[in-house]
User: What shape does this take?
Amino acid sequence: IPIIEQSVKTMIGIFIYAGGLLLVVVAAVVDIKTKTIHDAVSLGIFVLGLIGLFTGLEPFLNNKVLVLSSSSDIVAKSSMSFFQNFFVRIIGMGIISLPMFALNLISKKVNREIENDEIIGLGDVFFCGALGFLLGPFGILESALTAFVFAGIFAGGGILFGRLKRKDSIPLIPFFALGMTFFLIVRRAGL
Assistant: This one.
């Protein structure tokens, strides 16, 4: 029965994204207190992405995925195969985490004299990879953009008002929690 099948898919989607948001909020609180991210949280978010993959829940693509047809025209499809879903999630996994990993490596080479020698820690990299697997490329891009804008405003305001110094570090995950929340609300509202 299509109505029941759609209702079950909707409930699974709500479970997955609510669980993901809960894990992101937990990670944000831990990151604020300890400036660390436990791998178990990233693994939990990744597992939620796997549940989404195996239940056929598509990452956020406005219910369309772009594929090349045999005539090289771009065609919009309304549902993905398992392998398309997997491939899109892998792209989401790397689209933010790979540049963050590069920043991590560069910061270790450049900032050897600074006590805290990482601009972005590996925990942040793994976390963003897992979140990208859950949300897909557009979801993680929108969440990351929101996170980086708010983190920049926070850091800039902190420096401007004397609460932070240029070399101070701030936890990044709370801003990803804000970005994911903003993204899910915007998507849910259909904007």
In short: Residues 35 and 94 are 23 Å apart (CA to CA). Residues 62-78 have pLDDT under 50 and may be disordered. The longest strand covers residues 65-68. The chain is about 70% helix and 5% strand.
